[in-house]
Amino acid sequence: MATTSTPIWLDTERCYRAVTARDQRFDGQFIMAVRTTGIYCRPSCPALTPKERNVRFYPTSAAAQAGGYRACRRCLPDAVPGSPDWNVRADLAARAMRLISDGLVEREGVPGLARRLGYSERQLGRVLTAELGAGPLALARAHRAHAARLLIEMSQLPLTDVAFAAGFSSVRQFNETIREVFATTPSQLRAVSVRRGRRAEPSTATRLSLRLPFRAPFDARSVLRYHASRALPGIEATEGDTALTGYGRTLRLPHGPGAVWVHPRPDHVRCDLTLTDLRDLGSAVTRVRRLLDLDADPEAVTRILGADTALAPVVAAAPGIRVPGAVDGPELLLRTLLGKAATKVATLGDPFGGPLAGPLDELTPATGTETASARSRGARSFAAHPASVLPRGHAKPPGAAPDLPSDAPRADSIPSRGHAITPNAARNAPSAAPHVACPDTAPPHSHGEPPGAAPDSPTDAPHITAHPGQVPPRGQEVHPGAAPDFPASPDATRDHASSPGFPPPSDAVAVQPPTAGAVSGVASRLSDLPGSAASASRPCRGRPVPGSESPMNALTTLFPTPEAVAEAGVAPLVRRVATALADGTLDPHVGRDPDELRDELLSGGIDPATADYVVMRLLGSPDVLLTADPAVRQGADVLGIDLATSARGWRPWSSYAGMYLRILTTQAVRGEFS
Question: Name one Pfam family in it (predicted).
Answer without folding.
Answer: Ada_Zn_binding
